[in-house]
Design the sequence.
């Protein structure tokens, strides 16, 4: 089985199945097609499938022309028919791993997806889980389900964990150039995993087990979450002392060794950094451990939107205005600059808090023309066109996400009050408050 799979991958005759055609799955699809593989995309979202099969991208930084090209060439097809699973030689699972309302891992997308695939699995396939999760998931949840189908992992079917590493809109790195860590359930699984990904990734980094690979992904994101929590806490201290934290960070960054700059913000956003650390805190309890650093950083980062709203209230109060009834324009509601991804965006939490305190909330975001349906939040709003007249009539302009498309000079010249959570504006200006 292994020899046949390795040969098909080497000759690019294998069909790659990608389960979950989102921010991770879609770039992977394009990369496999680019080197000559046929890709079958599996997803439950019929609207997404129709869009992709029609040659239209629904992700801002992925051009529709690229999707149309691979569809027209017959190299890619999207479907919701999971009975076609057997057509694929490799199945790459790229589905969400959110938290429950109790901040515990929600692996229902992973287990539900695998359970849907199970009746159609066959010998000779490789299954790769790319979704971020706690150490032990692949071994404890996926392997038993597969082997209950009378398929022996490592002999009949090959199982690996290969954590995604995507940074949307970062032009310095691509799916090809970002090294990928691979952990296999057995040595033969690892061989298959390396063969699967070395076709499309410049550097594959093998580790000893799926658990080690799962822990690697968590370490990467916990490192960021803890350091962002640190600078967010220092931001509050510096603010109380009348010091510009962005000036301090930029000065410290001139040290050529022993220091890596991290920048504060209105909170944490995206599918990874606000969520992944809590996968480890939950799993650590099984071993009687309390992950204090991780949980403290989570507390600090989660409290940032409330702190920003407090700064807005104080700034308005200093100008003889109340937040209740004030017009507040939120600049940027995506979770990071220059993308259209709103998952876990602190901007939306800010909008909700401001609305609850009686403010009239508007937003402007060139990447999000209309506020989309979300599980936790509902706003019947479309992006406001940024003109000098609009800016002038706002009681407060809140810079939440610093897209490059914003005309910061115009905004700075016409705004009555700017509350800047990204360190873009000169804090010495009378109409700018850093937050």
Sequence:
């Amino acid at each position: 089985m292994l020899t046949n799979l390795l040969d098909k991958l080497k000759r690019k005759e294998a069909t790659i199945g990608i389960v979950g055609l989102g921010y991770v799955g879609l770039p992977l699809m394009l990369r496999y097609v680019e080197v000559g593989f046929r890709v079958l995309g599996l997803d439950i979202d019929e609207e997404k499938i129709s869009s992709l099969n029609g040659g239209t991208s629904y992700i801002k930084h992925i051009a529709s022309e690229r999707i149309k090209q691979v569809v027209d060439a017959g190299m890619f097809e999207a479907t919701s028919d999971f009975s076609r699973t057997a057509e694929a030689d490799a199945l790459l699972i790229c589905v969400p791993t959110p938290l429950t309302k109790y901040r515990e891992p929600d692996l229902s997308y992973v287990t539900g997806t695998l359970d849907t695939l199970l009746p159609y699995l066959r010998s000779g396939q490789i299954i790769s889980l790319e979704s971020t999760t706690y150490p032990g998931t692949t071994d404890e949840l996926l392997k038993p389900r597969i082997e209950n189908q009378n398929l022996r992992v490592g002999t009949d079917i090959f199982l690996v964990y290969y954590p995604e590493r995507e940074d949307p809109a970062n032009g310095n790195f691509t799916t090809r150039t970002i090294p990928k860590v691979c952990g296999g359930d057995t040595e033969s699984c690892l061989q298959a995993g390396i063969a699967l990904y070395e076709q499309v990734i410049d550097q594959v980094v093998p580790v000893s087990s799926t658990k080690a690979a799962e822990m690697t992904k968590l370490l990467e994101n916990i490192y960021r979450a803890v350091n962002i929590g640190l600078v967010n806490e220092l931001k509050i201290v510096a603010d109380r002392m009348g010091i510009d934290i962005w000036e301090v960070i930029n000065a410290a960054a001139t040290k050529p060794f022993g220091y890596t700059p991290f920048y504060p913000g209105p909170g944490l956003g995206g599918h990874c950094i606000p969520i992944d650390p809590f996968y480890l805190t939950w799993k650590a309890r099984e071993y009687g451990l309390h992950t204090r650093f991780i949980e403290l950083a989570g507390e600090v980062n989660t409290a940032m939107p409330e702190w920003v709203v407090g700064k807005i209230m104080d700034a308005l109060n200093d100008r003889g205005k109340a937040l209740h009834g004030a017009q507040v324009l939120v600049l940027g509601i995506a979770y990071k600059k220059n993308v259209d991804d709103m998952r876990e965006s602190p901007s939306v939490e800010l909008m909700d808090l401001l609305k609850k305190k009686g403010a009239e909330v508007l937003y402007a975001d060139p990447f999000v023309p209309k506020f989309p349906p979300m599980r936790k939040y509902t706003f019947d709003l479309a992006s406001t066109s940024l003109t000098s007249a609009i800016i002038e009539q706002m009681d407060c302009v809140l810079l939440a996400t610093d897209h490059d498309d914003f005309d910061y000079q115009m905004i700075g010249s016409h705004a009555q009050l700017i509350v800047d959570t990204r360190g873009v504006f000169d804090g010495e200006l009378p109409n700018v408050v850093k937050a």
